[in-house]
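Anyone up for a design puzzle?
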């Protein structure tokens, strides 16, 4: 396969991106061991080189341990397309109290490149490398290892799939032919699945739409469907970066405080004009920011640095060639990539494209999303509800989120608690949109009928339930190649599932290359003493105190959704959190154009 198998396309992006995106959900830092600097810069991960090149996996493990800031590292190959965050978290948990944790299959075969190593392993692995030993098993004899048996791993994932890596063309053909149902098959039996596994399943069934030409003034928030190359230089000419005087640098070679050089000012050039005079020895041209540098000049000196005396300026220092000049094509040369396919059109990018004379941009079509609310208890927002009824609000929330991310919402209204009616409405949505989202009717109650409606439609179930709270009653299915996502009727649960599960899928359908939520670490400002036997997602508000990212859970008073700008991830099994604890935070409400 050669050395670039990690760059082979998989799910519309290089194979290594699948690995990096999955790991980004679990770990704080990603290091890629590479002896070709910049090769993997597009992943956003940090690249490091082998300290002991040519020593195989042991050399890579050593490089990772030496460079990592954390006490433990998880090591995997860059060509393992079915790696799951759930198994990574399991291996990290298994490594507690040991120097390393390594999977061991039933045939005693070990998986050293899907293992956890602590800093305690650094000196033993370095000793092996210095002695010229590259065999992993020799290193294992020097450390305290937890061997994780296949039976335990099989409780989490199918090991045959999780440990699959691409070594041959036949391997590559296999991963391209694997069906979504197989990759999600362990989740359709009614068992709760992790947020990461659910999101991965949903992302695998969506893909960008075709592109269309969009007027530049209407492209804000859209996603480029093709690479755009610069048709000309930016700037198109050598221009001054400040107000000052254009001159010949050689005229200032002998300039000093005691011996200033006098130059005659022969012209003045404002922005938008061109000087008709050439700068000759002993002369200068007054120039404004953005104006073309006149012929003969090779430097510009700022007006603050000279003394003006009538028609002359006095210069007291040497001015270097090219000073304060932005060369033609310095920002972007003709033929350079101005913007790559998958880039969101921001105000700055729109300005750049306008400077290149672009009037229409090839953008992916905006996906349409059908929004359906279910429940006998719902009445339209404009009506006064009688006792036992409530106004329908979730459709307004989801419609707003869709518009915010430049997706076209189709609100199909409220549907009563009847499986056939719900199925009929979902079918209407599938005919008009690329995705259908329902709210309500998705838990295990007698009147929660969305799952029955999915059965009526003969839709292929991706998952029935999420292993998070709130948001556990969330399901997804596929019908005619289009995803159907059933969210909880609880506004808080629906918002959380939309932001962490649905929004990444919509961004991918829009054509974005980066679609996973941004994750940071922050310091908790409040105590949260409540135990969390199940993984819990809390609304919070992130602020900065003394330059440190901090998050408060006391936002919005009784309606925390109103004041929140982040989601806080509380691991399952937590006995509570205290002020000062570090927590994982999803940035879900930052200002962007996505």
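Challenge accepted. My sequence:
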């Amino acid at each position: 396969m050669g050395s670039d198998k990690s760059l082979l396309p998989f799910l519309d992006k290089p194979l290594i991106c699948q690995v990096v995106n999955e790991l980004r959900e679990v770990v704080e830092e990603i290091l890629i061991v590479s002896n070709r600097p910049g090769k993997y810069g597009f992943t956003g991960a940090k690249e490091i080189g082998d300290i002991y090149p040519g020593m195989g996996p042991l050399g890579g493990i050593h490089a990772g341990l030496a460079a990592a800031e954390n006490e433990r590292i998880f090591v995997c190959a860059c060509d393992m397309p079915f790696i799951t965050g759930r198994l990574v978290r399991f291996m990290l948990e298994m490594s507690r109290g040991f120097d390393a944790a390594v999977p061991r299959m039933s045939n005693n075969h070990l998986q050293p490149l899907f293992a956890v190593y602590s800093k305690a392993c650094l000196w033993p692995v370095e000793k092996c490398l210095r002695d010229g030993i590259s065999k992993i098993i020799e290193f294992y004899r020097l450390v305290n290892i937890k061997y994780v048996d296949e039976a335990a791993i099989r409780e989490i994932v199918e090991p045959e799939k999780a440990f699959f890596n691409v070594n041959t063309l036949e391997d590559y053909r296999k991963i391209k032919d694997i069906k979504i149902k197989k990759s999600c098959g362990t989740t359709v039996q009614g068992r709760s699945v992790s947020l990461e596994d659910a999101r991965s399943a949903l992302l695998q069934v969506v893909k960008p739409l075709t592109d269309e030409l969009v007027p530049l003034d209407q492209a804000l928030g859209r996603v480029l469907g093709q690479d755009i190359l610069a048709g000309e230089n930016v700037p198109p000419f050598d221009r001054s970066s400040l107000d000052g005087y254009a001159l010949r640098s050689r005229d200032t070679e002998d300039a000093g405080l005691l011996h200033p050089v006098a130059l005659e000012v022969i012209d003045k050039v404002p922005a938008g004009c061109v000087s008709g005079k050439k700068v000759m020895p002993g002369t200068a041209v007054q120039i404004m920011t953005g104006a073309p540098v006149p012929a003969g000049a090779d430097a510009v000196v700022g007006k603050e640095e000279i003394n003006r005396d009538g028609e002359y300026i006095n210069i007291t220092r040497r001015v270097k060639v090219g000073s304060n000049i932005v060369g033609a094509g310095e920002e972007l040369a003709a033929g350079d990539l101005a913007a790559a396919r998958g880039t969101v059109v921001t105000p700055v990018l729109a300005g750049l494209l306008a400077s290149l004379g672009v009037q229409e941009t090839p953008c992916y079509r905006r996906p349409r999303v059908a929004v359906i609310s279910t429940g006998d208890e719902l009445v339209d927002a404009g009506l006064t509800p009688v006792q036992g009824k409530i106004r329908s609000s979730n459709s307004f929330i989801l419609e707003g989120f869709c518009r915010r991310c430049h997706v076209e919402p189709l609100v199909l209204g409220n549907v009563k608690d009847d499986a056939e009616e719900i199925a009929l409405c979902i079918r209407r949505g599938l005919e008009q949109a690329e995705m259908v989202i329902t709210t309500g009717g998705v838990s295990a109650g007698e009147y929660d009928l969305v799952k029955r409606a999915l059965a009526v439609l003969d839709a292929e179930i991706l998952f029935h339930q999420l292993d998070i709270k709130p948001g556990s009653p969330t399901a997804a299915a596929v019908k005619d190649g289009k995803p159907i996502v059933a969210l909880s009727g609880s506004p808080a649960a629906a918002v959380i599932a939309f932001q962490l599960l649905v929004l990444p899928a919509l961004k991918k359908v829009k054509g974005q290359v980066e679609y996973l939520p941004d994750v940071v670490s922050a310091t908790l400002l409040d105590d949260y003493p409540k135990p969390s036997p199940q993984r819990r997602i809390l609304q919070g508000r992130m602020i900065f105190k003394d330059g440190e990212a901090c998050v408060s859970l006391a936002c919005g008073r009784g309606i925390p959704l109103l004041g929140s700008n982040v989601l806080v991830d509380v691991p399952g099994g937590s006995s509570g959190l205290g002020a000062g604890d570090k927590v994982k935070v999803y940035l879900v409400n930052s200002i962007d154009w996505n």
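A detail worth pointing out: The chain has a mean pLDDT of 86.
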